[in-house]
Every structure is written in structure tokens, then in C-alpha cells.
Task: inverse folding
């Protein structure tokens, strides 16, 4: 095992060997295996946005096997999806790519000011499908957040006991926040910190803007001159806010119109000490050869970071 | 076993042999046995609409044994009903037709903008009554949908562990949708996809109209020129949206005034790659000889499809 | 065992011998034993309306032993009451009359538009008190109905597993219904059907009026000319709506000013194919000798029906 | 054992010997032991009203041991308190006075129109602390009453299974009642009856006024000339309403300005056939010697009643 | 063991030796070990206020190991934090400082008039991390308080059964109280008393002001001349209200602008008979050498108190 992986595993000192083994499988898999960087393919957009919106642009992606293949061929670190998608390929692709079962999901057939998610899978499901971990979304800022934290806590306790890793999507939204506030630097750092305090091994947040949402936080950020001018600085702050870099934090893109803009973001994640990317729509909403080229560039940027 | 059944069972690769056996029993039963097509008789209208509205037109149908007989004589693939109706015939008709126990139900003695359903049966009930599977309704678009998804998830996990199949009625309704939107193409495809992601083996939706309900979806459908002009094309899209055809999707009729109109719909389901029909009121709300003739025609259309 | 009892037990073909034994005990007990008719004494009015309103007119009835004695002396088929009343006599009167433990109750110290009931006993209580069955009230039409159906389902499953019978009081009320609608013919038939679908062995409803509440139902009733002119015809329709007479349906009185009016109702129940009466206030709200005379007349009417 | 105690235990004919033993311990303890009368010391006012309001007038009462001593020295039948107070003395005073663990409590840091209570202890706690029984408050008239009845039912079932007695504080309040109605005769009798139906062995209510709250009840009370002119008559009615005297009903004081007024109330409880008093604030909100004198007078009045 | 520790342990007479051992570990640890005084370091501010607001002023504090080190080096009695922070150091610092796992937490990404907290850890977590106890926050005055009391009760029962201590943060807030009322003397005493009644071993409240919030309480306090003029007198009242000093009550600071003001408060806690301090932000929101000096002064004040 590489020194870097050994170092990262050392941060999770309270976990049992079963869970450390699953984290190691994720960190040692794919092109970036051993570097301490991760690129994860998540495909829950069919549930979250609808199948047509998600896959009509690349109809091959309607087939659940497509995403296993994409993750394998691109050399991704892992593949995360809801129950149905994993059930439809977990046997055929057994052992080919680390799997993360998303245990809660949300659809957009009803819009709410304060969203929550439905529980859509169990730790038992993750075990029987051979997954390395469970995924769970929380919505800090929503009036349902306290219940969601409690659900995550219970599932995470069970997952850790059964030797699985815990991956948390921490997405601020709800009546406690302005639209701009959902990606504010202070809010993003806060959301990542909450996930870490709830026991997450790996945390996924959106790339933060330079906006500061909360008055009390803004005062401190300004007084202490928290560097926030560049995206890399903001990534660094989020990493710092997550146990001073002792938890794995990965990022999804903000609004990026072009591939080059995405690559620029990836460089900022790398330069800010982020641990990688989770890239959904930019991966499967184009033809596979193009997707493979795109993912190769992302992976190369991260690979370069460790040389 | 026919090649086609073997192929369909192959799609459910994560299920245990117990569940595959039950799916095989359903797919191999009746006139269409072995063709991969299904015609299921569902009789929950007594609960859903009231006994008088459902059975006064054909009073023989007040007797729970009538529906077992109808399903057997017509050569249907299976018969689905709530607890009371199955308890009243499961011993007498043991082994004569695959049974699906509907585990939730709704009545119309109180109308709600955002409906839910009562839990009316258990997996344990399905086991003791010798059923091949459980049935469950979800209402995407209702503010109770997240709770319903969670209920389905828990029941489906138990059903699969105990070797049963999971059949989901996915009926969009509630404050998230316009009346027209309940059968919109994008919404129907979305509802079928959600059921598949929740782990359903067989999914029942209504026939979709050409309407597109959600703004973001409409943009994509129009940009990608998703074929939606004919009913067969719309069926094909729904099948595609359900794991690219790797889940069994069956349909109930839309508003059809005449038998010929129903048969036309069935041909569209067949031509669009749908897996069959679930036909309730058109079956039992007429005298039995007439019902048998009607069902024979439907079955013949599907049978022709595999020649 | 009489042929008629054997026939009735045959309808409950999915139940285990334990439950059939309890049903047989009820059907074979008292003056009407073996006829297939039932007259049950229910005394939950102390809880439902208050002790003064219920018993001041006949103070002997404050004593819980009074009702056991009344049921025994009158030759009733069974006695149904809440936990406290049964605990206060179940040992002294062990084996003298079949007991039904009412598992939920409601008081009138707070009036609600959409009522529910409190769970006031358990299946375990019914077992330890030597009861033949459990009783449970549902309120179709109330916004709490779905939860009540779910509670009944769970309790009924446990009761059946443990060899008890399930008796359901199905009382339409709540914001889904007009006051007149609570006893409408279509609504009463619907309420009885729901109870049967939820797995009840014995169903108790109020005598239906000729009113038709629901627009969609009224259209069908009128088109199909469902006979509803006489009370006996309306009873017959409710019996038909309850699995075509293959579930035991009993009735409580509507508004009857005189004993003769009650007897007239009983004749209508008998003539309409109803299975008997459940008579509370008319039994215990008069002196015992008078009550015994009254109940004797009711029983005689039913007894005549089977000659 | 005295004949009277044997008689009282006979009323609880469905209880197991474990519970009867605990009831016997309570009825045989203290100065009134064997008489069938009870004087219980309850001290939950620290939780219910705050420690300053409760104990500042007699600061020795801040110490939890004080109340054990007071109950022992006064020869009370038992001592009832919340978890913390009992934990703080149950070992030191083991075996010196029967203990009742109050399993729910309420504070006044937030006033509600429809109050409920928090669950603050368990049956397991009562067992480990050596208690003879559990205490539980219900609020008939509150919109939370149905849930409270259900909580009591579950706890009472467990308590009885584990050989404990069940003591219920039945306090009408909430939006279903006027302020005057909370102590109305009809409402008090109703509240006591509900507690008895829920399976309580001992019931505690407030002394009733002559007011009649509910229209339907008032009509019956007036028509049947229920005697209600004197306090003793009203006590007698409440006792009658509680299974015709076959459940132990005890009373707390109404508004009494002087000790003599309290003694007058006690004589009325005695003369009306009540089973005793539960006296909190009048006991511990004065210096101990004075409290002992006060309690001795109360006990003497009851003791005289059995000569 | 010192006589004082033996005395304090004697107050918890109903606890098992496992729990007493954990209380002894806390009371015997650190500079104040054996004196009966406690200074606890709590670090949940990252969760409660956000990481930037909490740690930007002293970035070393982003690292979870920092707080273990601070608690160890300062000779604190214990260290309390949420799950994530303890998981990140419990192995490395095993046995170096008694740990308290905070089992519920709250964030400020949504402000509510009536706050609650999310359950963020379990008793099982506390056991596997080697903690001496669990921590739990209640909000007397919030409309969610009854549910919070019930959660605490259940967790405390489990903790005590498994040999852990129970530490309760009792923070009045919510629509039942004015802003000033949150730290009023009567309210603070009440909040501490509720925590004691719920079975807490150690109670943490804020330093009380001289304000009296509740009308009924104010009348008693004024009539009984409860001394409240100095902070030491108010501390003494809170200690008295908590089982007359037979439960350990510790305090967090009120608004103190300078270190000297804090020290003055500590002297008042000492002089009023309080058991110590819980000091978060004043500890970790400055550089470590300065924090150590600050904590040394606080500890010295308490140490002087026992000479």
C-alpha cells in the first residue's frame, strides 16, 4: 500500500478493519489508485431529475449496465447509484469497480421550499450487493435537516459496524438560506463540517463561491482575513473546515459552461488540496468515447498533482 | 423454460432463486406463459371506488371467488387483490393462478389534494397466502411520496429476502402535478423510472399522453426529438426509461370508450415493446362470457406479437 | 356442529384452526347458537359517552359484573367491552360467554371534525383475558382513516396468528362525509366492504338509510336499479357488498324511538340476510328484567328466521 | 391480611400475584394499613411548577431525602415522585415506604392550550428502584389525549406483566373543556371512568364541583336526579362512575384556603366512600413538625371512618 | 479516593458500579482531580455555529487532535464533543482524558423560534469510543421540549445500564420564554431541576441573571426573600434547586468581555457552591499557550476553593 493511502487510513482511527478495508479498496482502485485522489461516477440523476432529462441526450445511458462500463473503462475510483441501478449490474460487474449504494433520493415531481429525501435503500442492501460503502444526502438549511442528520447517524452506525464506508452528499438548501447562500463559502464549509461531525468518511460538496451568507460568519471571515479570493483558496478553506484536511472531501462542479472551465475547476480542487471530483452529468450526458476523453483529462490533472 | 423467459430473468441478476422462481411462475403461467408477455387481472376497485360502483353492473363480481375463476378461465398471468379478497379464495384456488397481494390501498370516502394509501397487508400475509409477489402503489407528485417510497423500500427488501416478486403501481398525482400532467409522457416515464430505482421487478403505469408536463423535461424532449407522436412511440419511451427495457413494464388503459379502442391501445403497447396489460374494470364489469371474449382478444394480440 | 356453522366457517378458508375455533365458539354460543345468527352485547358507552350518560338511568350498570350477567342471562352470543370492563369480570365469568376485547376507543371530552381513536388494549391482553376475538373501530371518511386501517391491519395479523377472531366496527364519519352521508346506503356498503378487505371476520355497521352520498356511486346505483326502497333491501345490499354474503355482517340500530321500531328493524335485518344485531344502549339502559324481555324478543325474531 | 384488603384485592381479579402483592403492600403500609384507605405523598411539583415555587417556602424540601423521611414519619401509604427524586433516595430508604415512579411529567416553561406530558421514566426504572407501581398522567379534553391513552396502555401492559401496580392521575384539561369544566362533576366522573377502562388500579382525580359541563350529560344528570348537592354526594358519584366502587379512587384537594377546609374535604371524601387523599403541597410546603400534625389529622379522619 | 469524591459518589445511590466508576474517573482526573470540582472542555461549536466562526481565529483548532491536546495539557477534567471530533482522536488519545460524547446537536443554518436538536450519536458509539459518559442538550421553553425530555430519558436509561455517566446541557429557550428569560434565575434553577429529575448526573447551565421571568415564581421568590443579589447567591440557589446540592452542577459563562470578568464569574461559582465550569470558546479561540494560562487561572481559583 502506498504511504499516502496508509496516511489517509490513519485519519479514520476509530474505524474497524472492515471499514478501513473498504476505504482502501476505493482509494486503491482505478487510474488514481494509490494517489489519495478520487474521481467518482455518480448516477442518480434519473431519480433526481427524471430519465428523459438525464439520458435522452445519450440514450445508451438508459441502460444501467452502461454506467458500470463507463466507470470501469474510465478507470474511475468508484460508482455510486440508487438501489435499482446497482441491482441491475452488481452481479455482472462484480469486483470490477467499487460500488456505493445511495440510500436516499429525491425527485422533482413536487418542488418544496424545504426538501427532504426518501429512504430508498438499506445497509443490508449495500452488503448483499457487495458495495464498499453507503451514500446519503443531507440538506443543511432545510427544516427537515435535523431528521435527516438523525437518519444518517443511524445508518452510518450500522454501516460502520458492518464494515462499510460512509459517503455523505452535503447540499445546503431550504428556507434557512438564500439561493446564493447554497454555495456560499461559509455555508459550504459549514455543510462539510457537519457531515464530518456526523461521522462521514468521505464528504461531497459543491464548489463554493466567494459569497458569505451568514452575518455572524462574515464578520469572522473578514476579521480573520480568511483567504477566499480564488477557487483554490476556497477549496482549501473547505478542506480545512473538514477536520483540517483529515477527512476526504470531494467536489462537484459549479456552473461550468465548457469543458475547459471544468478542467480549470479541477485544477483549483487539486491546488486547494481537495481530494477529487464526483462527476455525473458531464460524464454520461455525452457519447462514451467523448466521456472517456473528458474523464481522462480530469484524472490526468489529479494524477499530475501527486507527482 | 423458453429462451425469452430465461432472458427476462437474467435482467434481475441480484435476486435470489426464490424470487426468480416466483417471477418465472408469473411469466410461465396462463395463455401467454413463456412469451414474456403478461395480462394481469387486478381487482382492488371495491376498496378504491366502493363495491356498488365496482360490482353492481355485474353482481356476480361481489363474490371474491368470481375473480379467481375469471383469472383462471381467461388464462391470465396472475391475479392481484387486497387482503380480504385473497383470503376469501386462496385455499380453494391454491395453485391455479399466481397471486399478488396488494399491500396498500386507498378509498374515496375522503378526497385529498395529496393522497396517500393505507398499509393493508404484510409480506407475511403474502407468504401465508401462497402469493408470488406483493403489490404496492406509489403516488409520485404527492407530498406523501417520500414516505411512500420509504414504505415500499422496506417492504420490497423483506419481500426479496423471502423470495417474492415486487410489483409497483406508479401513479403520478398530487399537488406537484396538473391533472393533465398525471399521464404526461415525461411524468409517466419518470414514475416508471422511480419504481425501477426503488427495486420493482414489475411496474405498472397508465398509458401516457403526448403532453409534456415539466418545463425542464420538455426542453430536453424537444431538443432531443424524443419520438412521442404515436402511442406506440410513447410506450417505447416509457420502456426505455425503465432501464432500457430491462424491467417488465405493463400498462393500464387510458380513457377508452369502446372495446376496439382498448384493443388499439393493446396493439400500441405490443408494438412499443411493452410487456402487457393490467386490466381491471374492463374485465369484471361485464358478464363473464363477454369478459372472457374480451380478454381472449387482448391475449391474442399479445400472443401474435411474439410470433 | 350444525351445517350452517360449518358453512360459515368455510368462508374463512385462509384462517388457522385456532381462529376458526374462536369463530365457532361465538357462533355456537347462547340462544342463537348454531343458527348462524348473532346478538352481541357491546358496552363501551362508558368510555365513548361518559359513565353518567350511560349508566345513571340504570345504576346497576355502573358495575362491570352487571354486563357479564346480562349477556349470560339473556343468552347473547358474546360480550364486547374495553380493557377495564373485561379485566373486572373475566375471571369470575370465565367460560360463561365469549368475550371480545375492544382494542381502541374514543371519548367525547373533545369533539373533532375528523375523529380518531386511542389504542386501549392489545392482542396480548385479549389472549390473557381468554377472549375469542378483538374488536376495532375504523372511521372511513375521517382524515385519520388511513392510519386507522394500518393499525387494524397490524392488530388483525397478530390476532389471526394467535388464533383470535377479528371484529370491526366500521363507522363512516369525518370531513369526507355529510352528516346524512354517515348512514347513506352507498357509504355503509363501502364501509362494510373496506372492513372485509382489511381481513375482518365479523363486521358491524349501522343500519343504512336510502340516501346516496357519493355522486359517482349514485349514478351507478340509479343506472343499475340497486333495490333500496325497504330497509330489508338495503340490508341485503350491504350483505352483498361484503363479499356477497361470505362475511358475517351485523347491525346496530338507527334512530328508533320505540321498542317496536327496533323489532321492526330486526325483522328487516333478518329478512335482508343480515347476520344479527349488536345492541348496547337498548339493553343496559333499562332494568334487567325489562332488558331480558327486550333481548328475548330480538333473539326470537332471529330464531324464527332460521326455522 | 384484613378482610377489607382481601376484598379490595378481589376486585382486581385479572391481575397476576405479582401485581396483587404490590397493591397489598400499598394497602397494608403506614398508619392506615389494612383499613382500605390511602394517604399518598406526591412530590412532582419541582418538575411541574419549578423548584423555587415548590420548595422556597420550606427549603429543607429541596433535598430529595426530605420527602422520603416525611412519608415515613407521617405513616403515609406511599410516596410518588419522578425519576430523579426517587433515584436520589431509593437505596437509603429501601423498604421503608412503598414507592410509585411517575413515568410522565410536564413543566410550565411553555403554556399550551392542549397540554401533553413528556415520558420521563420507564417500567424498567420502576423495577430497578424497587417501586410498587408506576404513575401516569392523562389529560382528557386535550387534543393529545388519544396519544396519552395509548402510551398509558402500553406502559400499563408492561407494568402488569412485571408485577407492578398502575396509578393514573386523570386531569381533564385542554381545548375540549372550559376552565370551570375541568373540575365539573360529569367531567371528573368521566375522567375517572376512562382511567379505569384503561386498566388503572388506583385513580387520582380532583375533587369535583357541582358544575355540569357537557350538555348531553347535564340532561341525563338532571333527569335522573343524580345527587350532587354536597361534596360527599359528588365523591360518591365519582366512586360509582369508577366501576361502582370496585376501583380505588383517591382525591386531591380543590381550592382550600385553610387547613380546616381541607379537613372538611377529607371528611367528605370519607363520607362519600372515597379511598383516600393524595396530598402534595399541603404536606411539604410547611415545616416538618407542622406537616406531620397536618397529615396526622387527615389520617385520623380516615382512620375514624373504618371504625 | 478522597473523602469528597466518596461523598459525591454517595449521592448517586441508585447507580450501578459501572456508572460510579465513570463518574469517579471524571472526578479524579486532571489538576482538580479529587477536589470535587470540574473544568470541562466542550468543543461542539463547529457544529453549533460553524467551523469558520469557531476556529478561524485560531486555525490550529480546525484539527480535532488539537482539542484532545488542549484538554490534556491544561489538566481539564474531561473533554466533550460530537461524534466526528471524538472518532478523530479517541484511539490516539485513549486513556489520556475522560471523554463525553455529545449525542445531540444543532446548527444555525436555519433559525427557529422553537429549536430542537438532531440525534447525532448513540450510547453504543460512546461505549466503542471509550467515553465515560454521554452528553445531551434539552431546551426547556421550546415546544419540542417534551420530545427532547423523552429522548434524553431513553438514552439515559441505556447509558446507565451500560455503566456510563449522563451529562445534560439544560438551555432554556423557545417561545415559552423572553430573551431575557433564558438566563433568568427562576428559569435557570428550573432548567437545572428538570435535568436532575430526568436522571442527569452532571448538569450544565448558564450563569443566571437576577431577572425573574415567571410571574408565579417571582411572587414566591420575593415573598420568601430568596437571596439573588450577587452572582454567588444566584449560583447557590441553582445548586440548591438541584436536589439541594446533591447533583453536580457546572456553569458556562454569561457575557464576559474580559478574562478578568470570567475569573470573577468563576470565583462566584466557587463561592456559591457550584461544582465547576465548562469553558469552550474562551479556551480554544486563542493560541494554545494563552489558553493554557487562562485555564490554569480558572483551575487555580477552583483549587483554592477546597483549601
Result:
Amino acid at each position: 500500500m502506498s504511504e499516502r493511502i496508509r496516511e489517509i487510513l490513519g485519519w479514520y482511527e476509530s474505524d474497524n478493519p472492515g471499514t478501513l478495508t473498504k476505504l482502501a479498496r476505493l482509494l486503491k482502485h482505478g487510474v488514481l489508485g494509490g494517489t489519495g485522489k478520487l474521481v467518482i461516477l455518480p448516477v442518480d440523476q434519473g431519480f433526481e431529475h427524471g430519465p428523459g432529462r438525464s439520458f435522452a441526450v445519450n440514450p445508451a445511458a438508459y441502460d444501467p449496465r452502461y454506467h458500470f462500463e463507463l466507470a470501469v473503462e474510465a478507470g474511475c475510483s468508484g460508482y455510486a447509484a440508487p438501489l435499482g441501478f446497482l441491482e441491475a449490474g452488481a452481479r455482472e460487474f462484480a469486483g470490477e469497480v467499487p460500488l456505493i449504494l445511495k440510500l436516499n433520493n429525491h425527485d422533482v415531481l413536487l418542488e418544496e421550499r424545504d426538501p427532504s429525501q426518501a429512504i430508498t435503500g438499506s445497509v443490508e442492501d449495500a452488503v448483499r450487493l457487495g458495495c464498499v460503502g453507503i451514500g446519503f444526502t443531507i440538506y443543511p438549511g432545510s427544516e427537515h435537516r435535523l431528521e435527516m442528520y438523525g437518519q444518517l447517524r443511524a445508518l452510518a452506525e450500522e454501516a460502520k459496524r458492518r464494515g462499510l464506508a460512509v459517503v455523505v452528499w452535503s447540499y445546503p438548501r431550504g428556507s434557512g438560506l438564500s439561493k446564493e447562500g447554497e454555495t456560499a463559502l461559509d455555508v459550504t464549509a459549514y455543510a462539510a463540517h457537519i457531515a464530518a461531525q456526523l461521522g462521514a468518511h468521505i464528504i461531497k460538496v459543491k464548489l463554493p463561491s466567494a459569497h458569505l451568507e451568514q452575518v455572524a460568519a462574515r464578520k469572522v471571515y473578514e476579521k480573520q482575513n480568511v483567504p477566499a479570493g480564488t477557487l483554490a483558496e476556497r477549496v482549501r478553506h473547505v478542506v480545512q473546515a473538514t477536520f483540517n484536511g483529515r477527512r476526504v472531501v470531494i467536489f462537484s462542479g459549479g456552473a461550468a459552461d465548457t469543458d475547459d472551465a471544468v478542467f480549470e475547476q479541477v485544477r483549483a480542487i487539486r491546488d486547494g488540496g481537495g481530494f477529487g471530483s464526483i462527476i455525473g452529468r458531464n460524464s454520461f450526458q455525452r457519447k462514451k468515447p467523448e466521456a472517456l476523453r473528458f474523464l481522462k483529462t480530469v484524472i490526468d490533472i489529479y494524477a499530475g498533482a501527486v507527482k
